[in-house]
Write the structure tokens for this entry.
Amino acid sequence: MTYQVIIPAAGQGKRMGAGKNKLLIELNQIPILIHTLFVFENDEDCEGIFLAIHPEDESEFKTLIRKYKISKIKGLVPGGKERQDSIYHALQTVREDGIVLVHDAARPFIKKEQIHLLVETAETKDAAIIGVPAKDTMKKVQNGIVTETVERSSLWIVQTPQAFRFALLIKAYEKAERDHFIGTDDASLVERLGVSVTMVEGDYDNIKLTTPEDLIFADVILKKNVD
Ligand code: CTP
Ligand code: MG
């Protein structure tokens, strides 16, 4: 089952504090951006990659794309202020119908089998996201005081990719734009249309590289994947 993927890569990586876009940081001598792009480049079901990039990174990213022979990029768009703006820009350049994935460039450990399971689910359900059950006890806290212990069995930690039928995703983004709604993920925009989103169980390795200690975990995950 084929799909196209939008990859937002236009952030600044402020929490990583590397003084540059965190996606340029190397793991095993390969930039994080390229690790992520390789997953889709090497997946025969992926028909096109749409990448949102920060204008400041444009020449460096283009050099890397050439160097690592990433051939599936069909669109390269300037990012926006928020992640959602970057994805909206990219979405407007996707022309064909079918299943569209959104996947953060900062999650290099997504596996092909999980992508396929997600795409298969989206084919029948129209909207599917990947996540893992919460392991820790979760509480609501206000002004430093616990106000509620939330029932853990219903809580999931949400990751990307998130997969949608193209027509549905564009409708959700257009409505969010009209309403000036900013969500923390793509599915939340689709949920606002009253459409059900199906959860697919992924794995705990699919972390988003956000702060410096995540790079230590990243080295361990890479090593585990090679062994
Ligand atoms: N992203 C984007 N456009 C933005 C902001 C973020 O395309 N305006 C992308 C990032 O490049 C990243 C993904 O969205 O691949 C998830 O964002 P996050 O992990 O928050 O990355 P940054 O925004 O770069 O990091 P920070 O929030 O620490 O600055
Ligand atoms: Mg951010």
Notes: The chain has seven helices and eleven strands. The radius of gyration is 17 Å.
